[in-house]
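Please, structure for the following, as tokens.
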Amino acid sequence: MATRWSSTSDLSATTERSPPVPVPTSTFEVIDMIRRALCVALFTLVPALYAVHATEAPPVCQAHSTALLDALARQDYAHAGTDFDAAVAQALGADRLQAVWEQLQGQFGRYRAHGAPEARTLVGHPMVVTRVTFANGDLDALVACDAGGRINTFRLVPAPPAPTAHRSEHVEPNGVRQEPVAVKSPLGPLPGVLTLPAGKGPFPAVVLVAGSGPQDMDESIGPNKPFRDIAMGLAAQGVASLRYDKRTDVYGARIAADDRFTVDQEVTDDAVFAARMAASEPTIDPRRVFVLGHSLGAMMAPRIGGRDPALAGLIMLAAPARSLLAVSAQQVHEQGKRVGATEQQIAAGEQAIATERKLLAHADPKHPPAGAFGHAPQSYWLSLQEYDQVKVAEGLSMPMLFMQGGSDFQVSPSADFDRWKKLMGGRSNVAFSLYPGLSHLFMPAGKTMTIADYQAPEHVDAKVIRDIAAWVKAH
């Protein structure tokens, strides 16, 4: 039986008999490892599968999951895989388990504890989920078993953010108001917040469009909430904002089962509706509604602007100027060694991307190939293949502001930001701002240049927020 596997740090195995979630082939493992380890999944859908509910998982599977984690905790690698089935045992031998467990602690800090196993269902498949706590962050261990109780799936993935409490209207001491709203989508409402400055308005407003995956309205990652920082900072300077939970966050399980999903369904469509919704608010100046996109949201901002010409302008934070596959290829090459990938893994990752590019080049957009790449269906990749954000931006006449962290290891200051400057820099209504020492989150960059940096509590740099507010007020 062939084996497919992927994980946050390459510590996972899944046999094809009962895959709980879509997983890539082994040739893609390094891309997946690097992407997760660095939070560079501009496109991954896997975390969206955390739409879960309790179920009666076999007690033997829960016991085997606990025994596995207990063995790893005491560094007993020889016995950690005692309950693996044959395919997983071959993929994750004692030496491999030791190497990756030590690698995990290099990225997330020393192991501290693991909790009690919980029986859940992920996309219709019973799983045992256990929270594993490290010094600099939490992971979830996902374990599934075959009918005989042997472990045929073992994955470690980033723990999802804690559920957001019920929101009600709130007024800050400085008079800033946060009003709960619902952004309509074809799958149902998306919880959101309209953040208003003190006073009556009407105010200029910015619609915040998050990066990839199941982002909540704050773009939460570890203890950090960059979109909340931006919203509150802008409101203090007289600029309103609207932010919302992404469709992939609220309806992740349904989306995971959709093999025709596209990037417009993930990003564009809801952002266009949110912008028009903001313009209809009595406290908002409808002539001064802007879109602020971050990462994938910034990449899609030109398309959003094309769909809604009434927008007052676009603000693009860490916007890729290349295709996501090109960005991924650079990440595989540059970041592979940083997260412990071997030369062979890096080469395999680069080849996997080249193979996918070739497949897309000859694919019929009306009839996408079967299967998935990097946890996203081929329909998703074809929808990106047809989109050239630079060309679309060049066709727009609205004002644009490009902002880039100088220490961003996800979107390149040279390959992406400099390309935008070269192609768009001659326009009088296009501005560029580079912030040395800031990360992809526009917070002070850490030392490791990995996801571990994002576990340190920080805030979006105040100058970034001031610059956004000043640019909005000037337009």
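The mean pLDDT is 84. The first helix runs from residue 29 to 37.
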